[in-house]
Write a structure and sequence with these properties.
Ubiquitin-like (UB roll), mainly beta, about 100 residues, ubl conjugation pathway, 5-stranded mixed β-sheet, Mopterin_synth/thiamin_S_b, isopeptide bond, 7 strands, two-stranded antiparallel sheet, tRNA processing, globular, cytoplasm
């Protein structure tokens, strides 16, 4: 673990990046040590989300149609929001919602 916190790679795809200033990849170093995916979602909403939060979050989780992968594994297999993040985890959010 780094001296300053928890280093993570956060990526967005399938159009989700448009909600985060169009940036697909974010290297972050979160303060402190105990981070779950649920806490990360709140941090993303408060710190990186630049538009239309209702397209990314519903309540305290991602809205239906947003796939969440941690190190290429579906978060549903890892306990969803309760998953404890580890240093250098890669968290990927992919939107399956497309206009037509």
């Amino acid at each position: 673990m780094s001296a300053t916190g928890l280093p993570l790679t956060i990526e967005f795809g399938g159009g989700a990046e448009l909600l985060f200033d169009g940036k697909k990849r974010h290297e972050v170093d979160l303060p402190g040590e105990e981070w779950t995916l649920k806490r990360l979602l709140r941090w993303l909403r408060d710190n990186l989300l630049t538009e239309r939060p209702e397209l990314f979050m519903q309540g305290d989780t991602v809205r239906p149609g947003i796939l969440v992968l941690v190190n290429d594994a579906d978060w549903e297999l890892l306990g969803e929001g309760d998953y404890k993040l580890c240093p250098r985890d890669k968290v990927l959010f992919i939107s399956t919602l497309h206009g037509g």
